[in-house]
Amino acid sequence: MDYYDALAALGVESAHPGGFEMTQTWLSQIPFERGQEVLEVGCGVGKTACEISHRFGVAMTAVDIRKDMIEKAKARSIAYGVNVDFLVTAKHKLPFRDAIFDYVIAESVTVFNPIVTMLQEYARVLKTNGMLLDVEMASMAPLPQDVMREFRSLYHAIEVPTISDWKKRAAQAGFNDTQILLSGPVMPSPSDEIVANPMLHNMPNGIGRIIAENQRVMNLYGKWLNFIILMARK
Ligand SMILES: C[S@@+](CC[C@H](N)C(=O)[O-])C[C@H]1O[C@@H](n2cnc3c(N)ncnc32)[C@H](O)[C@@H]1O
Fold this sequence. Notes:
Blueprint: H1 3-10, H2 19-27, E1 37-41, H3 47-56, E2 59-64, H4 67-80, E3 84-88, E4 101-107, H5 115-125, E5 126-139, H6 145-155, H7 163-172, E6 176-185, H8 192-196, H9 198-201, H10 207-221, E7 225-233
Parallel strand pairs: 1-2, 1-4, 2-3, 4-5
Antiparallel strand pairs: 5-7, 6-7
Helix pairs in contact: 1-10, 6-10
S-adenosylmethionine (SAM) binds at residues 4, 7, 14-16, 41-44, 63-66, 69, 89, 91-92, 107-109, 112-113.
């Protein structure tokens, strides 16, 4: 059982900084037009993809590497009555031709992967002038090795760039005009109560242990982290 198994088992709906409220904030600033082609990468259980489809009438596609997430996302789209094409994808290779999407969306996905590789793949499938919108963690300063070791072990993150390094990675991947729409501290309320809650430790399949571990790491290191909403044009 790892962090992503726990998210899938619990069906966590908005596993990114700021949750669904943050999604609503950036959604209100994007001029989606009916019929545009929109891709979400790392859609999890599909809440954002269903919301975009429902609100804007775009042609919505969403992918995740986990079959269990995609199954839950498909069930959600049926319940919502929206038409989203949910697909399982290979890890660093999107199953699409070049230059077919107007927007690529990712919420808390890119940072858990080789970042430039992922950004290059987003750029490949975007049309010229297409837009990337990515909600991610950024570090306030380069992270000490012991902190990075914890992030690697729990989230499999290879690096957590600073805001200026995120902009550099986007430029390396071929994006122009990179802007930070919003950023701020990832302020988890430190909660030793959660970490110590005996009920968690009795949950089946080690799920509670992962939740407690996530809270422990955030209690300790949340102060090193910002969230960013990065927008970049191909
Ligand atoms: C922290 S969760 C965020 C899920 C969702 N975006 C949300 O905000 O609730 C990260 C998700 O990205 C998926 N993921 C990680 N790496 C991926 C990749 N290379 N391609 C597609 N999906 C990926 C994971 O399986 C997981 O569902």
